[in-house]
Specification:
This protein is α+β, with helices and mostly antiparallel strands. 43% of the residues lie in helices and 14% in strands. The protein has two domains: 50 residues, no CATH class; 317 residues, Cytochrome-c3 Hydrogenase, chain B (Orthogonal Bundle). This is NADH-quinone oxidoreductase subunit D.
């Protein structure tokens, strides 16, 4: 059969295939929300080459940072990955704090850890919810559980920050304000609720025989390929890349723990790692709550925060992988350069390595196991 090219447009949670010629499907207008193209070369219904085509959602975030002071930068920083808003703003805050030599209060460090893990579970539950549907698209008890869990996490995050999507809870020097009365009790109740809700989510995905059969061995990303492409987060750890900045980093106060790792690097292992990450976050939040100190949650700052001349690089573990900030300053109240290293930008390259050899009929299962946020790619 003569090789032909097809295009898969991905947007608004849908995936579309054309198997005879090049087609553009999905919302591809530059102002559309979350669109990217995947150009595939197919021979005999087997993908032989894959090329992610990004840039439809370019936002110019890094240039916008340069004309805003450090407090205003946080407003933009939580928007490129809208499922990791708290983690995004935290990375920028940590970069400025390190640049200025700030030592934030211990209570704010612990609360940041709790809010990061809540944000991580929120992002993973959004990713898992569509995977719990049946092959006909019908919601299952696992779908209802994933959506209920997401709403429960969002409610606790909203209590802490006042926002549901863009939290704006971080400030240079700590958090905007302390948690409201009764918040820690609500978090403990959330941990209990999520522990019970995870059972039907697992039953509809990694514990379901049909799901396991459908995903095993598909879209394999080797450890060598993951390392070469800089793939991190659950996707990298599913391929055996033993890197987790919660354990290996220096900016927060996590104790030693073993991250969720896989070796197969296939679609099933990627989903297993995401489910395991939620279970790990539940344990980390519980242990951090037990060690939550009292005291202030921020530092008193001057009217204008100015970083000294120089540069610094800070990285943290966002839900989808390593989020890094390279901050360069000329001693002014705005950054001279603020460069983002976003996990989705690196991770999406892996599609070119893991899709060749995949049957066209298996593309939905493989692509469904691979989480990216397009704003995080086209930052």
């Amino acid at each position: 059969m003569r090789p032909v090219q097809i295009t898969v447009g991905v947007g608004a949670g849908a995936r579309y295939l054309g198997v005879d010629h090049v087609i553009d499907l999905g919302p591809l207008h530059p102002s559309a929300h979350g669109a990217y193209r995947l150009r595939l070369t197919v021979a005999d219904d087997i993908v032989t080459q894959a090329e992610p085509l990004v840039g439809h959602l370019h936002r110019g975030a890094e240039k916008l940072f340069e004309v805003r002071d450090y407090r205003q930068v946080l407003t933009l920083a939580n928007r490129h990955d809208w499922l990791a808003a708290f983690c995004n703003e935290l990375t920028v805050a940590l970069a400025v704090e390190r640049m200025t030599g700030m030592d934030v209060p211990p209570r704010s460090v612990r609360l940041r850890m709790i809010l990061c893990e809540l944000n991580r579970m929120l992002a993973h539950l959004v990713f898992l919810a569509p995977l719990t549907r049946s092959l006909t698209g019908t919601p299952t008890p696992g779908t209802v559980a994933a959506l209920r869990g997401r709403e429960a996490v969002q409610a606790v995050m909203e209590q802490a920050s006042g926002g549901r999507i863009h939290f704006m809870a971080n400030r240079i020097g700590g958090l905007r304000e302390d948690m409201p009365a009764g918040w820690t009790s609500n978090v403990r109740a959330l941990l209990t609720e999520l522990s019970s809700l995870l059972a039907p989510v697992r039953a509809a995905t990694v514990d379901d025989d049909a799901f396991r059969t459908r995903h095993t061995g598909l879209g394999v990303l080797t450890r060598e390929a993951a390392l070469a492409l800089g793939v991190t987060g659950p996707t990298g750890r599913a391929s055996g890349v033993d890197v987790d900045l919660r354990r290996d980093g220096e900016h927060l106060a996590y104790q030693d723990f073993q991250p969720v790792l896989g070796t197969a690097g296939d679609a099933l292992t990627r989903v297993e790692c995401v489910v395991g990450e939620i279970e790990l976050s539940l344990r980390l939040i519980a242990s951090t709550l037990d060690e939550l100190p009292s005291g202030p949650v921020n530092l008193r700052l001057p009217k204008a925060v100015k970083a000294p001349e120089g540069s610094v690089y800070v990285w943290t573990e966002a839900p989808l992988g390593i989020s890094g900030v390279h901050l360069a300053s000329r001693g002014e109240k705005t950054p001279w350069r603020l460069k983002l290293r976003t996990p989705s930008f690196n991770n999406v390259q892996a599609l070119s390595a893991l899709l060749p050899g995949t049957r066209v009929a298996d593309l939905p299962a493989v692509l469904g196991s691979f989480a990216v946020v397009v704003g995080d790619i086209d930052k």
